[in-house]
Design goal:
alpha+beta, Lipocalin, 2 domains, eight-stranded antiparallel beta barrel, 6 helices, 45% helix, 25% strand, disordered N terminus
Length: 245
Amino acid sequence: MKNSLTKSAGIMALTALLAAGCQSADSSEAEKEATSSSTAQAETQETESNHDHDHEHEHSHAQDEEAQKIYDGFFEDSQVEDRPLTDWAGDWQSVYPLLENGELDEVFEDKALHSDDMTAEEYKTYYTEGYKTDVERVVIAEDQVSFFQNSKELSGTYTYDGYEILTYEAGNRGVRFVFKLTEGSDGMPQFIQFSDHGISPTDADHYHLYWGDNREALLDEVVNWPTYYPSEMDGHTIAHEMMAH
């Protein structure tokens, strides 16, 4: 009887150990599966994150390339949109005085360094003709344009008169956004035309300005293009902005 009880107790103990072992094995397998699942999920998230980052980088790079093409004058007619005068709102200074006092010399030296076309002195001569003007400052607010010319202020109200797409000898193109005088001081031009490398609504950071009383004749002007940057910028900053382009 005693041996039978001992044998039964032994069998029960062995059964308990086997059950515990199975539970431990099941638990271990579950832990492995959970760890594997967690690792796979983390790898998937990392892959998706890298994919999103690469996609965003490629998209940003494509946008930059497209913007540079437009800046250089290569675009489709369908991309051009009307722009309001407020795109050029602000207080602007002519860069011609900066050229005269030598603050832009480093720009011409930089151009010569990256080109075989002209020397720094030849570039300076070319830009002297391009930037030359006696309108040293322009202030634009809503539909009002003020010229500061030879220490005298002239103002006028202008309304949008469409845009013109021009093709240059080099094969690239540009857009002139035209505004017509509706009322103002004697001496204010009947037309002003903006060119800032932009072809759709955006705030200008600088621009070339053409003005006169003959709309069509102004479109033929490609030699003299007075250029304006924000009045709060100093010559050194403007020079480096120019070199960045």
